[in-house]
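User: Fold this, then the next.

Assistant: Folding the first:
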Amino acid sequence: MLEHLKPQPPDKILQLMQAFRDDPRENKIDLGVGVYRNAEGITPVMRAVKAAEKRIWETQDTKAYTGLAGDPAYSETLSRLILGDARDEARLAAAAMPGGTGAIHQAFELVRMANPGATVWLSAPTWPNHPSILRHLGMQMAEYRYFDNTARDIDFAGMIEDLEQVRAGDVVLLHGCCHNPTGANPTAAQWDEIAALLERNGAIPLIDIAYQGFGDGLEEDASATRMLARRLPEMLIAASCSKNFGIYRERAGLLMAIAPKADMQSVTQGMLNHLNRQNYSFPPDHGARIVSTILGDENLADDWKQELEEMRLGMLGIRRQLADELRQRTNSDRFDFIARHRGMFSRLGATPEQVEKMRESHGIYMVADSRINIAGLNAQTVPILAEAMVEAGV
């Protein structure tokens, strides 16, 4: 049997990570992997996470399974963080998932079971795992224009023109904030126009929100998701706690489904439970319990928010520094978009050849499409990247 298996194409980011590890240069810079790092290059354990883990260790008296949907306190506290006053408990179904990837995978499976003929629309570009999972599941997908690589900003007219083609029952995947891989987000007015189009065409939004708190703030980063939840009858939300709680390896995700009517909530919840049962039975609990412990305690939550804000402001500072360095070196404002965009990622607009030149000459590693992890930089390495970009002719 196994001799009939065919090798799968290698993951480009994992290949990049291996190439970085194999590079003997001491001054090399890793801007590829999507993990937050502080100025010392460390992915820290947040203070509130340490305190929550200590409390869990001291008080937890069993390692028995949670329910199929996970600990209810996790779903409740995280859904409140994301949805705020747009949270309609009577229509909301939610289940813990192994990370944001697990939430996306289960969301696609839910779509396939509810409407096998639905097309899932993805932004061009998007996180590579989105189309990869859809292909694995054999689902229909299409792209809508999103990022203009020349202007280095959203092609909103092209986006709307493409989304006019969506049919009732199709699913449109949208990044709730801090778009990955570009960092370019719609304005509030543009979000309103997107909502009106989905409402008019009867399409269902699937929000991937993995960076809440990394952009303009916890409340601000959730504003588009909340607006859509208020306006549209039906919605899916895939959330991740990896970045904003810094618990990458704990795999804490959540899938939420907002049903059109309250009498459909129990069926929807039952389907989320069913999908968990078919895939891995009970979801992991440790990361989820860390999150619910923090969000359920005012002092821990305040400390977490303070440290998260420090991380956010640090990334904004790096963005401004890089934009300023490039303005000085090029005597041009064409890189000011870096300071305007939000989150961990920006796409520089370099060609694959220019990306390779920067790797060879300066040991700077980034994805071939020139997506960089802003959190991979610090005050000392920003000038090195700026100089490398100028030398490469970006």
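Now the next one, as you asked:
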Amino acid sequence: MRSRNWFSPILLQFRRNLNEVSTLAALRDALLPKLLSGEIRIKDAERIAGEVA
């Protein structure tokens, strides 16, 4: 069991990274089309992203 102890923090960080990637991808998918169309401005997008984070 001792040899697995180093592996646990790596898996935990991996899961956190996956969660962050999913969050960032969802923000990108939601905000990018609105930014490109002019529906929202950068300032609005920053506020929305801050509310999610």
